[in-house]
Amino acid sequence: MAVTLSVELTDLEYAALAHIAVDPHDWFQDMVKLRCKNTIAEVANNKIKEMLADPAVTTIPADKEVIFSTLVESGDIRPLAVMTAEETERTRAMLTTAQDLTPDTPALS
C-alpha cells in the first residue's frame, strides 16, 4: 500500500520554498521521506536496545524496516492521533466529576 500526501501552498509560500530549493516538489518529497526514515531508525534502534537487554531474545532482525514493520503489525506503533485520543480518554476517566462528589468527598487543600 502506498499513500500520496500533498500540500497546498499560497503563491507567497511557494516563492519562499522556490527561493531555497531548486525543485520545491523534490525538496518536499525528500524532507518527508527523510523524516520517515529517521523515525523508522529511531524506533528500531530503541527496540534493538530492548532486545539486546532481554536474555530470552535469541535473534534480532538485521533490517530496521523489518523491525519497524513488525511493531506496526503488532499494534505497538500506532498513529499519534489515536494514542492522544486514548490518553485523553484515560485522563477523562480518572477525573472526578461533579456527580461523583458527595458531602463526604474530601476537599483539596
Structure description:
With 109 residues, the protein is mainly alpha-helical. It has one domain (11-94). The protein has 4 helices and no strands. Helix 2 crosses helix 3. The longest helix is centred in the middle third of the chain and has 30 residues, at 24-53. The mean pLDDT is 91.
Distance between the termini: 55 Å
Strand content: under 5%
Report the major sheet. none
What's the number of helices? 4
Helical content class? 55-70%
Count of domain modules: 1
Shape: flat
Q: Specify the structural class.
A: mainly alpha
Low-confidence stretches: none
Instruction: Give the SSE string.
Output: HHHH
Radius of gyration: 23 Å
Mean pLDDT comes to 91
Number of strands: 0
Helices and strands in order:
Layout: H1 11-20, H2 24-53, H3 64-74, H4 80-94
Helix pairs in contact: 2-3
Give me some keywords for this one.
109 residues, mainly alpha, flat
